[in-house]
Amino acid sequence: MIRYIWFAVFLSGIQAKSAQARQCDKTLAGKVIDFHDGVPLEGAKIIVNNITVYTDKEGKYIINGLCATSYAFTVSHEDCDSQVITINMNDVSVKNFYLEHHYTDLDQVDVLSQSEKKATNSQNEGRLNKKQLEEYGGLSLGDALTEISGVTSLNSGNTIVKPVIQGLHSSRIIMMNNGVRQEDQEWGEEHAPNLDINAFNNIKVIKGAGALQYGGNAIGGVIIAENKLTTLQDTIFGKSQVTASTNGRGGSANTTVNLGLKNGWAAKFQGTAKHYGDSEAPDYVLSNSGHREQSFSTVFGYSDFKQGFEGYYSFYNATQGILRASHIGNVSDLIRAINSPVPLVINDFTYDINAPKQETQHHLAKIKAYSRFKSLGKLEVQYSFQYNNRKEFDIRRGDDRNKASVDLDLITHAVEGSFLFDANDEFTKNIGVQYTYQINTPNPETGVRRLIPDYEEMSLGTYAVTEFNLNDRLKIDAGVRYDFVTIDAQKYYEKTRWNEKGYDTDFSNIIIAEEGDQWLTDPKFDYHSVSASAGLNFSYGESNTVLLNVSYANRAPNPVELFSDGLHHSAAIIELGDLRFDQEKALKLSLSSIHANVFNSGNITVSPHLSSIKDFILLEPTGLELLTRGAFPVWEYKQTDALLYGVDIDYNIDITKDLQFHTGFSYIYGQNTKENEPLIAMPAPNFRSALHYEKEHWSVSLTNTTAFKQDRYPNNNFFHDVIESGEIVPKLVDISTPPDGYSIFGLSGSYHFSIWSPKDFKLGANITNIFNTSYRDYLNRQRFYADNAGRNLTLNLIFNF
Amino acid sequence: MKRIHLFLVLLVGVILTSCKNDDDAPAPVNEEETITTVKLTVTETGTNNTQTYIWKDETADKITLKANAAYQASVQFLDESDPSDAEDITLEVVEEKDEHFVFYTTTASGVSFASASGDTIDSDKVGINIKTDWTIGDAATGKITVYLIHEPTTKTGTTRDAFGGETDIEVSFDVEIK
User: Fold this and answer.
1) Could you tell me which chain B residue has the CA closest to the CA of A450?
2) How confident is the model over A296-325, as pLDDT tens digits?
3) Is the CB of A371 inside 8 Å of chain B's CB atoms?
């Protein structure tokens, strides 16, 4: 509103001036042209004083009867940002106006309306809407993403939640934090993404490796989280949200403020705090499962249709308790823990978080600039810096009691540039180059041998992707990418382990020093990766679309797969990596059949997919090692071949105008084809359904999550001798059998009301696990020790301003 | 805009030149809290017949005892990962006596263990079995297993399961009673 007032003041000033000028026989003529492809715009509107003219088919206009003075011309076209240009009629008689017709490409999407645009042409994608993001404001990104069919989560308790895309996770997924590839030790199965869901207003998931501009090694897929600036001018608006939950007896608060200044400058500030104590399962307290989180982010920038820049900084700090009962001394303890129906340690509820716990911090700063070139396209350059610190605390003795067992510093610099040739909308090309330099420094003060070593990693990637509209119905895409990755590590190996792994024969040349019973080695590895993708997007009939994509990707082994050798307390296993690993090579075929109207009874999307992964790296038990602590199973990383296939199905129907039903189903089959046994940790078939009723001011949803029992799993069980009442008894250590299936109901409701402006408040209530069902999930690493969390009532108040 | 581009170019330069960092070797880590050795010093009651039995590097000495005799045993937990600087972790266990408990169990029938006089007593007046009296029955063979339990939920019981907590040490010795 304010900007119109300014404009009116401005115009009236000019009018006063023009009245003094007598000669009013000037003419201005020219064209209105689409800046980005040079096409003349028909029907563009030009307003000066009280004169309004429109351009003709060739984009031409002519305005007569202008006086010899300065005028402000307002040029506009539907779907374009209008432009105000001041011209002195003493000097000019011909003027072409350039308007940007495709403002969505300029990242100028209004924060209030989500971008519906897909990130790729032919890949199966899912996205979270604004309402879902708000509902999960007090939880984590990994929780929210499970709303998307085919996306499940790998949990360590209920706060450490990692997304799993069609059975794959960790290093096989790329997480984009506002245009920057997040580097936060994502290889770890109990390392959750170090970012806050409230920092983003748009989250998409690409279920495949074909989005080559983000990286070449995303065998599982890409998660894109974006935080966009407002394009509105002279405005300030925002949102505050407070949540309070009964389970964990805590809550969260977050606030976002958007600022739109004149002339295209804008800024956004956002902060979140979360504070929870121990969670509770239906029958007991999940001791030491509390959670704290503070995060802050800011974006600022300038943008117009020719050029712009953006600065972004985000900070994330979290302390997460790990279930006390999951800290295991040795195999005998593990047997006791598995066989006990309740966790071995149950204390009274507390907000305190003791060891075992994780403390993580992530700083991310970036600057990005773009410039558009007339009738050519858009150049974008970006530099980003990330600093990640991860501390993991085990239960320790003596002076080391308060020392972290793992303390890793990871610094990442990335420079990237891309050029999007979009002058021809029917045939766009995007080329780019990315350079990343990373340095990992484990702190030796922990007094525990490093889980992953000191290393430097450099990677250089370059890609070209293109989209081509063959006709109105068929759009094809193709892309190719090459990455060079080099890792230079310095690692200590215990001599006994070194020999045991056979490195004394294969790698004796990398030993650089001797230190007591350890070798200092200097492993250097280079990897050349080629990825490619091709696909099509075909519409037929009135409302049907089919997406078909084939992609090939390589993934270099991550540091833990190469280097790990040590005791892992949360699993009571010794994990061994292997220096000999080659890259994983994945071929994926995906299809999506989208039918917006099936016989007038709703819309359905069926997305089958098939992946064949050669040299798939997985962890497998190989033996038992005897320490003074007792016996420990040894698990070694192995390369094998894997076959994965499955289907995601989404179905929506509007039962009445106000009542909607949705269900999503996903199934995945994973097989280790070399050993001919099922792959471990594949999500069980599951349904997520919701019945949603919405009236003007309020809405109610009944939701259900049903997971079947996973019947396909590798049998890694073993027997272990235990002395019981004077007898040696061999006991089965069942670490393989998945828990039973479950069905959990939830109910949520919200009510909009108005205090200062229409619908500025929203009050919501949400109950999860209504019937307080005791259950365990196959993809929860703490399933051996405790049930999942029980009923939780969350109240949620949102104030929009 | 020009200035931004220049800035980026400079940054790239800085990063590329700062990548040469191959010089310092990381400091070695010698794990201090590892207990490498468990030592039992066993003395036949009323005599000076003392034997030590050691568990180290996955192998244990065989314990030989006389039938129907009585012994006094004391246990030591040692960190000998640095042979020139062996550390006695038993001192730490004694210091943190409330959070520790040593438990013995055996498959040799007729052998029983009890806290001895001179044992370390915790604040609940429970001996934590650093020093124990062993009562031996008839001839038999089997295993004696020693546990060091950290933060046990209780200090009374007859099986390992009864104590809860976490196992810091679990080592077995073959035993022959003749």
Assistant:
1) B29
2) 999 999 988 788 999 999 999 999 999 988
3) yes
From the list B11, B26, B170, which residue is nearest A415 (CB)? Answer: B11
ipTM of the complex: 0.79
A156-165 burial string, b = 16+ CB within 10 Å, else e?
bbbbbbbbbb
End-to-end CA, chain A: 15
Q: How far apart are CA A699 and CA A691, in angstroms?
A: 11
Q: Which of B21, B32, B161 lies at the smallest CB-CB distance from A336?
A: B161
Stated as kind and residue range, the H or E segment containing B15 is: helix B2-17
Residues counted in chain B: 178
pLDDT per position as a tens digit, A216-248: 899 999 999 988 887 777 788 889 999 999 999
A319 contacts: CB under 8 Å, gap ≥ 6 = A291, A292, A293, A353, A357, A358, A359
Mean pLDDT of B17-32: 65
Residue A100, pLDDT score: 67
The residue among A458 and A134 whose pLDDT is bigger is: A458
pLDDT tens readout for residues B76-100: 998 887 777 788 889 989 998 998 9
Residue A336 to residue B166, Cβ atoms within 8 A = no
Instruction: For residue A105, give both structure tokens.
Output: 């490409």
Say yes or no: A726 contacts chain B, CB-CB below 8 A: yes
Is residue B46 less than 8 Å (CB to CB) from chain A?
Answer: no
For the cut 80, the answer to whether the pLDDT of residue A214 exceeds it is: yes
Of B28, B108, B161, the CB nearest to A518: B28
Q: Do B34 and A628 touch (CB under 8 A)?
A: yes
Q: Which of B167, B168, B171 should be substituted to probe chain A, the one whose Cβ sees the most A Cβ atoms within 10 Å?
A: B167
Instruction: Name every residue whose Cβ is closer than 8 Å to that of residue A166 and which is 6 or more positions away in sequence.
Output: A150, A151, A207, A220, A221, A609, A611, A644, A646, A648, A666, A668
Asked if B35 lies within 8 A of A628 by C-beta distance, the reply is: yes
| Alpha-carbon distance A334 to nearest alpha carbon in chain B (angstroms) | 10
End-to-end CA distance of chain B: 92
Q: In this structure, what token pair is assigned to residue A218?
A: 């995303």
**CA–CA dist A746, A153 (Å, integer):** 18
Q: Is the pLDDT of residue B113 over 90?
A: yes
Residues of B in contact with A460 (CB under 8 A): none
Each residue's pLDDT tens digit, A532-586: 999 999 999 888 999 999 999 999 999 889 998 877 665 667 889 999 999 999 9
- Judge whether A279 and A247 are in contact, CB under 8 Å: yes
DSSP-H helix ranges across B60-129: 90-95
Question: Nearest 5°: phi and psi at A657?
Answer: -60, -35
Using CA coordinates, name the residue in chain A closest to B149.
A329
Q: Is the pLDDT of residue A337 over 50?
A: yes
Does the CB of A338 have a partner CB in chain B at under 8 Å? no
Residues with Cβ within 8 Å of B104's Cβ and at least 6 positions away in sequence, in order, are: B113, B129, B132, B144, B145, B146, B147
pLDDT of residue A175: 95
**Inter-chain touch B167–A329, beta carbons under 8 Å:** yes
Give the one of B35, B106, B166 whose C-beta lies nearest to A329's C-beta.
B166
With beta carbons less than 8 A apart as the criterion, state whether A422 and A219 touch.
no
Read off the pTM.
0.84
- What does the pLDDT look like over A577-611, one tens digit per residue? 999 999 999 999 999 999 988 888 889 999 999 99
Q: Residue B178 CA to chain centroid, in angstroms?
A: 28
- Residue A39 tokens read as 């096409």
* Residue A171 per-residue DSSP state: G
Please answer yes or no on whether A309 and B4 come within 8 Å at the CB atom: yes
Any long-range contacts for B156-165 (C-beta under 8 Å, 24+ apart)? B156/B126, B157/B103, B158/A725, B159/A724, B159/A725, B159/B105, B160/A332, B160/A336, B160/A722, B160/A723, B160/B103, B160/B105, B161/A336, B163/B101, B163/B103, B164/A344, B164/A345, B165/B101
Distance, in Å, from the CA atom of A293 to the CA atom of A303, rounded to the nearest integer, reads 32
